[in-house]
Structures are given as C-alpha cells and as structure tokens.
Amino acid sequence: MPITPEQYDAQLTRIRAKLTDQGSLVTSLCDEAFGTIYARDLATARSVMNRDDEVDQIDIEVEREAVDLLIKASHDVCALEPAQIRSILTAVKVNNELERIADAAVAIADRVVAIGERTTPFPQTTKVMTNSVTAILRDTVKSFDRIDADRAKAVLAAEGTVLKFQELIVRDCEQRVADGRMEVDLAFDLHSIINLAVVMADHCTNIAEQVIYQATGAIVRHTTDGWVEQDLPEGE
After folding, report:
1. d(Cα 117, Cα 5) in Å, to the nearest integer?
2. How far is CA 60 from CA 43, 57, 220, in A?
3. pLDDT single digits (tens) 139-169
4. Is-contact 16 91, C-beta < 8 A?
5. Which region holds residue 217: left if phi is over 0, alpha if psi is between -120 and 50, else beta?
6. Which residue has the higher pLDDT, 82 or 110?
7. Residue 130: CA atoms inside 13 Å, Cβ hemisphere, count?
8. For a disulfide at 229, which of 145, 151, 218, 234, Cβ 3.0-4.6 Å?
9. pLDDT for position 74
10. pTM for the full model?
11. What CATH topology corresponds to 5-231?
C-alpha cells in the first residue's frame, strides 16, 4: 500500500528518536574523552576510541532509513508538507554532524594516549572550556529533540565564548613554554586538544542552524556581524 503522510511522520519520529539517542551517546563519549585529559586515564581513553564503532553503526542505520523513507515517499507520490521535508533533511544532516563530533572525541582520546604518563598540568581554563563544550553539546541535542529554535540560537551565541577560551589557553600555553613550566611537545598536544574542542562546538552550531531551519524555515549564516537568519525565497 502507498505510504500516507501519517505513516511518513511515524517513521520519521522513529528516526529522530534514534538520532536523539545518538546525540546522548556522542555527548557521553565527549564527556569521557574530556575527562581523560585531566585524569590522564589511558584505559578510558582507549575505551572511547573503541566505542566509536557504536556511533558509526547508528550513523549508517539512520542514513539508510532516511534514504529508504524518502524513496518510499517519492515512489508513492506522498503529499508531504514543507515542514515534513525539512525534518528529514535536518535529520540526515544532523546525523552527519554527530558522527563528526564523535570522531573529534576519539581524536582527543588518541591524543591522551599519546601523552601517556606525563603529569604536567594543563591551564585550569582548559577544563572550563571543555565543560562549556559539553554543555553546548547537551543543549544542541535538546534543541534538536524538541525542535527548539530559541535553544538552538543560544548554541550559536555560545560559540564566541569557546573561541575566547581557545585564545586564552593558547596564550597561557605560550607563556608556560617560555618560562619552562610546560614542555613544547605537551603544549602541542594541548593545542591539538583545544582545537578539537573548537571543532566540536563548530559542529554543534551546524546542528543548531539545521534546527532553526526545521523550526522556522529560515536559513542561518555566519557573517562578520554575527549570525543572520535569511528567509527562503518564495516557493522554496
């Protein structure tokens, strides 16, 4: 039998629920990866690296289910509303962004393993920054789950704070290397870690853009003056 708009919505709801669970898994991986930075917990770091396969498997499942749903709807000439189309497009894009965030978490865990037993402390600002990124990721997943444009806009606004933390840590790192409190190699590792944290935050803003698009139909773009919403041309 041809698929109905109601059946389409039911299948889409299942896909979105799987993506929300994926977001929770990715948040957990990121939180664990950040924790290994300060505990220098090599066992947990290796565990994070191994759990990436879970994320990849869900990524493949969501992609396949979304494509199958679109194929079924197009073959059956299912009469869908623009919001229903936006929702499935958002799901596919969010799926990709979550997988990349998980990749960044794995890369951080890999860097912690490379640091090994070295116990030289990182600047305290590092922990503040990684805690902020974890909070941003949690808000990102909530905004997607609830199709909450306001929360998504808060995610966009938080990106600037992460970049300021990055600048502070880089300057602190340079000073520590200059006065002998930190080895050059460890400073390089720290730079890599905070850059990966920034990458995570950037992927979160990509998801937030998609949430706003789904909720309002507006396309969000970053300009020199900040985030700007652009309405779609009439008929699109």
Report:
1. 57
2. 27, 5, 27
3. 999 999 999 999 999 999 998 999 999 999 9
4. yes
5. left
6. 110
7. 26
8. 218
9. 75
10. 0.88
11. Methane Monooxygenase Hydroxylase; Chain G, domain 1 (1.20.58)
